[in-house]
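seq:
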Amino acid sequence: MSRNPEIPTHRLDDAARAGWLYYVAGNTQDEIARKMRISRQSAQRLVAIAVSEKLVKVRIDHPIARCMDLAEALKDRFGLRYCEVTPSDPDSHSTTLGIANAAASELERYLVRKEPAVIAMGTGEELRATAEQLRPMVCPQHKLVSLVGNIAPDGSASLFDAVSRAAEIVRAPHYPMPCSVIAPSKSEREAIISQRHIRQVIELAQSADVTFIGIGSMVEDAPLVRDGFATLAEMRAMMALGSAGEITGWAYDDEGNFIKGVTNDRAISAPPARDSKREVIGVSMEPGRHRAIRAALKGRLINGLITNDVMAEKLTLPLK
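struct:
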């Protein structure tokens, strides 16, 4: 898209950031002025430039220079096939703002194709928010498949089931996994895995053309504990074994190696494939998940990442 050559690049950068703060993050012009340390009149002009130069549609259509630099640095450092870094709102406490929009945009890149594709998705707040950002369309040629169970330990449906919501919006066939994330015992896991429909969903997920997953931390108040999939004692045991993070219920250490024993013996989904030939994109920016994201990158459990500039800055720093 052509831009006005009379507007300097840094000015477009500022306009894009102001446009993001206004249209995506929902800031007022007074709030934008405060956050960018400029006058309200300047903030108003920058938002106007963002519109006139067509930087703003539903999403920002302009690569903010620092975010692009960080994305390239992460790709080089961890050998990523894909990386998107979004700007952050310093006053926001959201764990999905910006990255859900970016993940939805990347997901739509597959959905608009005429050629059939298998798209696998995990669960969690980030991916549920991603599903909500999708634009309505009709995609009967694609298959959306869940990587992990959508049933809570008490038998209720998961609040963060992303596949079902995404399929509803884009009207595509979907394949949920009607079971829990972690089985109560090894024998029950084997019984569940042996069921034909569960095995078929797992095999379909393993053949996905692209995978979108959340990255969880292994701490005492982690979602696995809060949602009742693991006890506090089990979480502490996993932490003692060096667990750094988890993906679809599978815990791994700081090198990205899967932990032996405890809840990993009862995880029902297939473990993430290391060095996958297809895109496996992690979607996460929560500050407390820095260790988990770094370990997933280091162990090549993901080859794509969507995060924000604050997390990207941390990931580009050398380990102490």
